[in-house]
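Inputs:
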Amino acid sequence: MNKQTKVWLVISIALSVVLAAACGGGATNTTNAPANTESAGATAYSGSTGSVTGVISFNGAAPASRKIDTSADPACGQKSPNLTADDIVVKDGKLANTFVYVKEGTVEGGKKITDYAWSTPTTAVNLDQNGCQYKPHVLGVQVNQKLSVTNSDPTQHNVHPTPKLNPEWNQTQANGAPPIEKTFARPEVLIPVKCNQHPWMKAYVGVMRHPFFAVSGEDGTFEIKGLPPGNYTVVAWKEGGANGTEKNMQVTVPANGSAKADFAFGEGATTSLNPSLKMMPALEIPLRH
Amino acid sequence: MADSPAPGESLVKREAEAPANDPIVSRSTSGWMLVCALLLTISIAWALWDEAFGQRPWKGMQREFVARYTRYLDSIKANAGRSEAEIKESPEYLQLDAEYKAAEELVMPEVKQIDTEVARVQKKLDAVTDPFQNQRGRLTVINYYVETSTGSAQERYRREAEEKKQETIEVAMPADNGHAAGTQQFNYAQLEKLYDELREQKAQNLGRKAELLKAPSELRKKRDDYLKNQLIGLGPAAIEGLKAKMANYDYSILGHQISVNAYNIVDRCEVCHAGIREPLELTPASLAPDKPGGEPDRLARAFVSHPKREILAVHSPEKFGCASCHWGNGRATTNETKGHGRHRFWLWPMFEKENTEAGCQQCHARDRVTDGADTLNLGRDLFAERGCVGCHRYEGFDRETDALGAARQQIGQLVDQITGNEKQIRANEQTGGDPNTTEEQVKRLLAQSESLRVTNSLLEARIDQLNLQTKYLMQDQKKVGPNLKDVRVKLRKEWVPYWLENPQGFRPGTKMPTFWRFAAPLDDSHGKLRDKDAPQQIQAIAAYLWQDSFDLKLPEQQRGDAGKGKQLFETRGCLACHSTGEGDSKMGGSFAANLQRVGEKSNFDYIVRWIHNPRERVAPYCPKEKRDLTHEDYAKKNLPFVFDTELHSTCPNDGAELQVQNMTVMPNFRLSEQDSRDIATYLFSLSSQQNYAAAPYMDDPNIKEKGRLLIKQYGCAGCHEIRGFEEEQRIGKELTVEGATPIERLDFALQTHHAQEGEDPLKLRPEAEHKPWYNHKGFFERKIAQPSIYDEGKEKDPKDKLRMPQPYLTPEWRVALTTFLLGSVGTEGSNVPGSLFFNPQDQRRQDIQNGWWVIKKYNCQGCHQLEVGQRSAVQELPFYQTPEGKDLLPPRLTSEGARVDPAWLLKFLHDPSLSGEKTPEQQRQMSALIGSPAAHAQPSPVPRANASASPGASPGASPSANQAAKLPPQPGLDRNGVRPYLQFRMPTFNFSPNELQVLVRFFMAMSGQQDPYIREPMKPLTDQEKITARQMFTSGTPCLKCHITGDPTHDATAIAPNFLLASERLKPEWTFRWLLDPARISPGTAMPTGLFRKEGERWVVNLPNPPASASAYHDDHARLLVRYMFLLNPDEQRQLLAAERSGPMPVATGGARPAMQNHARSRRRRTGFHHRRKPVRAAVGRSAARALLTGYR
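Outputs:
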């Protein structure tokens, strides 16, 4: 073996060692990305506000008021002898008990209304059982706001909300028992509340993430206050069927001003309802044979 | 080597001889060397690279996983930390903490004192222990010498021991109570005493300390448990732990390989799928490449945690590995294709995601329902419900037919055995009489004969059992399709060929598959495959069915009220199985037929009769004579033509058990004839009659034989009852282990090339259009989608052509059935060791699986929820979406076994009307109506083709037409046994005792109940307890407001069962829990929560002003009410009701009212009821109410 060969050999071996070392030591790049800190939560809105006002009207003939047969519980008959159904209350062509709320929208400046944090009021909303009827018939609460159910009747009730997105419960409340206080953690439009002992008793609770909702009064009017200026979808919800009937409207709320949103329900104005056994309260349950 | 020259010499010589220009010496090979070295270097480099990376793609993946996971952990840490801090600041936690600290503080001084005392004693003990133990050791040694020596030596040692005991020992005692440390002297006895005393003192003190610390440590545990229970998800400590684990990640295969020596499982799946068993739920988004919550990539999807962790919990990967269930090659780590076993030579390619549950079927092949495997369960449902089982045997499916065959075979064997034994007995007698037989032998022979006689008696008992079984099995045997012996009575003649030609066209989605060999072409490709004589085939089949049908005149029915019929149809429960409407307006269950167009095809009278009682068979079938019996068969024996499952189930000719019912799963809804008419009228109003082409050929006797051969060939009798085919076997391939068929034995026929090239004639998967489908999945999917493609282009004799018709399947159903078939691999084809198969030994699980077969067979889930989370078909109906509608649904059965007494359940399932057996009156009526010969008219004048080619199928075998004016009476007419307030009706299924037993055991097992159930005796109520219970019942907890009492006025608004049923129906333990919180047992129930509140350890009525007697009662109020409820009788209930009406019940007269007075009062009330409501309804309600009362007195 001559000198030249030796040199090549040395070079070869050296090369392979270097290569091997390079291979063995190699590693894929493992860049540890910095810990991601999610946005710490939405901020509260501060600034000028406006409002949405409107009237809910009812086209066509108002349904005749229907008397409720309270014979199943004499205590109800004694307290309110002339109890009438409260599912559609129309006075002078105006519809009461319509739940109006801001469904979605963009606040001036481009942020969504849901991007802001809206604080939960510490005061409870009251739902009273009075004269074997829920008062009010339709109401709204904010997420995690207390709903306080009271019994002003000389008889026992049970309060039975049947939500779809919140847990269902069914709590008995005797005459004179302390209020039942509950909260709902998730927005839901609207949760029906019933009393199994008095099947005609119905209430609806709308649960919202923000405070922009209202219920139309006997004159059909409503007002949603404190809304940041922007473009919104306002929805009016009327009871009936499995999920009620909803109507949408786009409004632009000016700063320190008021937007108008009038809705109409009834004949010619109704959208198709979901198929349902219309009105199936127990007072209409046909008897067994 | 001897003749070789000396080495040195030869070397020198050679050197000298070498040529001057020697190439070896002078020419350089270094160039080649370089090339070789380079090649070597490159190949080594490649080898090293391949070793490090090529073969180890997982290394990079592991690093990536660690990086992403750590990043995700960091992102969630902030929230976790906050929540723990929040809990620690919550008032509940602070109070628990304060309680703990207060308790600890309270005992601390004493504990400290004890500690000092223990320390003092310990010091002394330390000082004493050594000297004492040394001395004891010495004494032991001396004693040993005493024991082993004798004589004087022994005496000497004894003395030595005595001396040792008296020897004084100096002990350096420590300082105590201020006394200075010093030495003390003891002899052995004193020392021993001191030692024992000190130990005793120490133990006492420590015991006291433990006693003192018990309360605080319990409180501390309570506080810590609170924190643990409130902390949802992982706490910061746990997250830090996971991060630390990631920081020290084991980048290897071995660290992540599952190896189960016992079953030879080695799975390395977790080397790449690193997040599978992480305690956090890892979604693809949380491990996205850019940031948690970002857009996930392939790797992120590979790193997720197992999507069904509840399944991993019961199938520990440490025991089962991964590939056992998922298939694929668990050992391969070099690349995805190999690891997933997607290689043509690997026998178990990983199941596609949609078919994952095929893996479950390997081991759970005997299950009817496997929890958590919805797709697989759907596949099994379809296999049974859609009629696959009509042609294809599958072990376990079609249990009755299999069991019937086995039972009949067994009876034959037992009869042979008995005959054999008798022969032996006779032989013994003969031998015994032989004078050559010794007495010893005779005695032995006598003993043997005696034993054989007893054996025969036992065998006869066994045969009795088997005979009974055959009766039950025949009662339970059902067919998927309708009884075609009724064709002539039921259908419009011209409709039959119309239907055969295109069933899906008439009724989209029907179970009846399309027989593409004679059906109308669905598309061009289909038309090519149609048999040349397709129209003739249809004609022949129709002719056979028409000519070999029963023929009789049914009671004529008037049209009823369609509006009322609609209401009945929608509320009684028909929609749990049937649907109406087509396309988007379709409504109802898919278990049974869509009835939209039933009026177009059927005879109104037949449908009324069918709705009235679908099990009502025209004539019984005798399996022994293999023919349908006629009226004459009965008349010959002077018997009325009456057959039912109870007392008239045997053949008058030979006593064999008869098929007395239609083989349908449809139950009897106990409807009146009028209601049946109304419902039929409604159904007939859904569509209008169409004109079909006349079909005179159906009366042509010449084509009947061709029809018979075709029916045999196509296997129609798999799903239908057809005369002459009662004993027909299934025509299809058994599919129990179909998934294990080697791929080359699946007949892809001329599609093989298409399958390998990824060319799909059916375009089943637009998203993966060119994916090769030469595998089991591809074959099955297409075989069930359109079987005819495997006959395309084949030259075949008509009799060899494929017979499998094309079933209606939605894409979802196709996936489910494919999954079921893929997993059907048996023991041989499975990738799981047989010893790991699911084979429940405990009775409870077996009872559950046995029950599922029956539950599914009758579609109990159409109305009821049997498991939490399962939804019934009627729940989805639009009428029941409102809060009021939900209260009208059939009861949930999730805790049925815990709720009801099994004996009662048996009774109820047998007769859900709870009306008892048939009254003699009803029996007489039945005989009078259909039994007496006078009620029968002459055979119908309809002309019939009498030339019959098939044996046993002569038209003469049809029963003589009876012309009863009315349908038979309906036992339990219009009654709901438990919930009369529901419009839904629990129908009478006519279960055999076998199925009744299976169902009861199923419900008991589902609720984990003991079987048999032995009722605890109920402690009688004292007078005082009675008064208390009454007051609680009526005052604040007005139970009777909602519960039925049997008084129609009251019951008009009642929505809950009668308390009088409780004692027989319910279990007291369940009732107690129900009273406390019904929503926990049946979510959404009308029964409210909060009737009782806990006061200490007992439950008391939750009233602001409880009745005085309740306040004075110091036991559990809820338990008292349960006892009261179970001891309630009708009189007591009437009094309660009266009391509720007239205010609180007077305490003193409560139990003492004369019963007569109460009767009179309730009668008055009922009379008043008459005036206010429709008389008919009131009368029915009243009689039902009375029956309820009298039935449970």
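Remarks. The first helix of chain A runs from residue 3 to 25. The first strand of chain A starts at residue 50 and ends at 59.
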